[in-house]
Write a structure and sequence with these properties.
76% of the residues lie in helices and 0% in strands. It is built from eleven helices and no strands.
């Protein structure tokens, strides 16, 4: 595929890594986008149209590119051979490794997403990532567990990103150790929750009682 034949979505995805690299020095603005367009042989006006929301759209496209890199770094065959804790850890570490070379760009991106007008977008992007991680890890929950797992992981991931931004080691050893402790906390919570659910499964429930009054079992 050549850039002349590319759709706007394809251009958006293709330019995202270059924009992220440039954003470390030029911010998430026109200059970073235009330099990435020039490097890729894309007309600057077309590049501008590909990101109608400006900086937020550029950040969105970069985060999507990082998600793709995460998926590529942890093959499905490797995931299948892991236990759930190892799956989550491997995926989060892969995403951290993908974003780490552009830490300054990430700082600038997070500052933009922290603006009041961008809070909803920030929440959507964070949820998109943790939902993807859980789905790749094999989670099929459709009840309240679907939401609690993702909410907890979102908090862990956000805290780990903050740890990474202060980790000056190239191998991110401190960040990975921080993540490991937080993942252990998730696993302990899930184990305790499962035990509580088993213990209360057959205890009297007002909701079930009322439901049976309304829809009696025959």
């Amino acid at each position: 595929m050549t850039m002349e034949d590319a759709t706007l979505d394809e251009i958006r995805a293709a330019l995202a890594p270059g924009i992220a690299t440039n954003a470390a020095f030029d911010g998430w603005g026109d200059a970073a986008r235009d330099m990435a367009a020039d490097a890729a042989g894309v007309d600057r006006d077309i590049a501008r149209i590909a990101y109608p929301g400006g900086a937020v759209d550029m950040i969105d496209a970069w985060f999507a590119d990082v998600d793709r890199a995460m998926i590529g770094a942890v093959p499905a065959g490797a995931i299948a051979a892991m236990k759930i804790r190892a799956r989550i850890t491997a995926l989060v570490e892969a995403r951290l490794d993908a974003v780490a070379p552009n830490r300054e760009s990430l700082r600038r991106a997070l500052a933009i997403l922290a603006m009041p007008q961008n809070i909803a977008v920030a929440a959507r992007l964070g949820w998109r990532t943790v939902d993807l991680i859980w789905r790749i890890a094999g989670d099929t929950a459709t009840d309240y567990n679907h939401y609690t797992k993702r909410t907890i992981l979102l908090g862990v991931y956000a805290a780990t990103i903050n740890a990474m931004l202060t980790d000056d080691r190239d191998d991110l050893a401190e960040t990975h150790a921080f993540l490991g402790r937080r993942i252990d906390g998730i696993m302990r919570f899930e184990k305790a929750k499962a035990g509580f659910t088993r213990r209360t499964r057959h205890t009297p429930s007002l909701a079930r009682f009322i439901g049976r009054l309304r829809y009696p079992v025959v």
